[in-house]
Backbone:
């Protein structure tokens, strides 16, 4: 199925993603920042749908917006301080940080502007109906070892989180 | 307004990456710094999926690995935040000076 209104949806999603990302780093209240981050994650899921990656879009919504953000909100509830909201939110080297990040962004834009001709111009056919099946075959075929290593990483992360958060081991 | 190319997606991802680095470098609240790291990882994911449109499915598989890493990193990072908050009653990074001499 060919997408409709691609240009409009691209600019709409890009606007939503960037505005809510700016809200993430400027809001005083961490709960508001987390809710803005959810909006960014959902618009990125829209991008993945536009790029013929429905499985990644589903994983993004279920795992990021559903799982990781609930974790974030729980921790905000646990550590939220009344006085922290009233304190100064930016550290002393904020000007240097912003200048460094803008320089990095300028460098990226320069590279993209100079080098985008080396990309292939025609798209690979990615049939949406078989997307999940093909990703599953790739995960259990070519990417078998990284898949197993990822499961080990998750095990270590579970043990690490329990050890960190437990009062007395 | 024209056709949307890969370059458009790369520019959006670069903007998100930049906002994420600004958040990491300037904020004091450590929870929001972790959220900015999530923004950076998402910008990378958008790059990977945009390139998978040109080079085949491998970018999408790799972006799933990146999401797995993000989950592991969030779990451990938030565990560290809870342990730290229990000891020092603060979530500001510039008050984390235990290892500073």
Residues:
């Amino acid at each position: 199925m060919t997408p409709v209104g691609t240009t409009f949806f691209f600019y709409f999603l890009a606007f939503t993603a960037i505005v809510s990302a700016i809200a993430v780093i400027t809001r005083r209240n961490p709960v508001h920042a987390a809710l803005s981050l959810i909006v960014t994650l959902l618009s990125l899921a829209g991008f993945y749908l536009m790029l013929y990656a429905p499985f990644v879009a589903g994983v993004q919504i279920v795992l990021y917006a559903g799982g990781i953000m609930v974790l974030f909100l729980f921790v905000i509830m646990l550590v939220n301080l009344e006085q922290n909201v009233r304190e100064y939110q930016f550290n002393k080297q904020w000007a240097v940080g912003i200048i460094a990040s803008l320089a990095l962004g300028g460098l990226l834009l320069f590279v993209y502007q100079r080098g985008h001709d080396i990309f292939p111009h025609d798209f690979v056919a990615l049939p949406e109906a078989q997307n999940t099946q093909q990703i599953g075959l790739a995960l259990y075929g070519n990417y078998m070892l990284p898949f197993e290593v990822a499961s080990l990483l998750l095990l270590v992360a579970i043990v690490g989180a329990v050890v960190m958060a437990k009062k007395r081991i | 307004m024209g056709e949307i190319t890969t370059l458009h997606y790369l520019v959006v991802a670069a903007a998100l990456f930049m906002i994420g680095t600004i958040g990491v470098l300037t904020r004091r609240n450590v929870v929001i710094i972790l959220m900015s790291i999530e923004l950076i990882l998402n910008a990378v994911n958008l790059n990977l999926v945009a390139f998978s449109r040109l080079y085949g499915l491998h970018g999408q598989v790799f972006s799933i690995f990146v999401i797995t890493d993000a989950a592991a990193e969030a779990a451990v990072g938030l565990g560290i935040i809870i342990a730290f908050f229990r000891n020092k009653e603060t979530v500001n990074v510039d008050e984390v000076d235990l290892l500073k001499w």
